[in-house]
Amino acid sequence: MPGIRYFGDFERFAAISDVTASKLDRLVRRSDLLLESQEKDASYEDFVDLTRKMDDVVVDEIASWQSIFGTKKISVPV
């Protein structure tokens, strides 16, 4: 039974990763728009802000995974 619960969490992991992928896709589209814009329309701060947002998305995913794994009790049969 513990193995079933453990592997059942992969659905939760997949959901977390899907949300993260969606967020990152939106940020990539924004970065593409910045790169395509006229130089005067995009600033260094715009790219820095976008990079920070991407970092935040990745850190949030790691925190979500840790909240799931942090509750796991792993035992090895003797």
Summarize the structure in words.
The longest helix has 35 residues, at 2-36. The chain is mostly helical and 78 residues long. α1 (2-36) runs antiparallel to α2 (44-69). It is built from two helices and no strands. The two termini are 17 Å apart. It is 78% helix and 0% strand. The mean pLDDT is 81.
Low-confidence stretches: none
Give the biggest beta sheet: none
Number of helices: 2
Distance between the termini: 17 Å
Briefly note the structural class of the backbone: mainly alpha
Roughly what percent helix?
over 70%
Strand content: under 5%
* Number of extended strands: 0
Any idea what the shape is? elongated
- Average residue pLDDT: 81
Cα-atom radius of gyration = 19 Å
Q: What order do the helices and strands follow?
A: HH
List the helices and strands and how they pair.
Elements: H1 2-36, H2 44-69
Describe the structure in brief:
The chain is mainly α. The protein contains 2 helices and no strands.
Task: Write a concise keyword list for the protein shown above.
78 residues
